[in-house]
Amino acid sequence: MKRARLALLISGRGSNMAAILAAARPDYPAEPVLVLSNRGDAAGLGIAAARGVPIAVVESRAFKGDRAGFEAAMEAALAKHGVEIIALAGFMRVLTPEFVHRWEGRLINIHPSLLPAFPGLDTHARALAAGVRLHGCTVHLVTAGVDEGPIIAQAAVPVLPDDTEASLAARVLAAEHRLYPAALSWLAAGQIKVEAGRAVITAAEYAPESLLNPLPRAALLSTQ
Ligand code: GRF
What we know:
The protein has 224 residues and is an alpha/beta fold. The chain is 33% helix and 23% strand.
């Protein structure tokens, strides 16, 4: 099997990156060849190095408003490692439309909400404030609009009555760690196509499920 050469872009903790590195055994369709951070102090760099994955740092602060220069430096690192697909994993810089266009169809992100609800920051606090009963995470292809690209996969978690921002974030993060490696594998294996702006998954093991929260009594669910 020809594996797609994968770069993971991070800015911090790197727990999604770690989940993908753990999933990327020899039969996984993507081979992590680079972990790239825009911050030298990102904790995820140490995790990647410990696993023997090459790391690189392009300090965004050093480019102060020069986004083209910052991205040119990133492109140089990506080219040096022969990168074919990119997974954003807590990467906290907005990419230019030019960068996104160059990597169109090969650039994927995870966002901690059920998009299109709660794009942007502070998603868990906003979900609690809105009183939603289901929250979760979304893996999507990246387009020029922030958190707007075609949705590949979503995982829902219940919002419990006594949840805090921290407890809800932890529940969503556990779902992220299961969802992201699966969604990324479909992209790497060429099992996602975009039709009319929507992602279609052609993978054989794709099994949609539904969720209800709160779950009504069985009698109320019956269609008899
Ligand atoms: C995750 O919640 C992800 O959805 C968001 O940023 C966070 C990154 O966490 N894009 P980690 O660095 O993967 O632990």
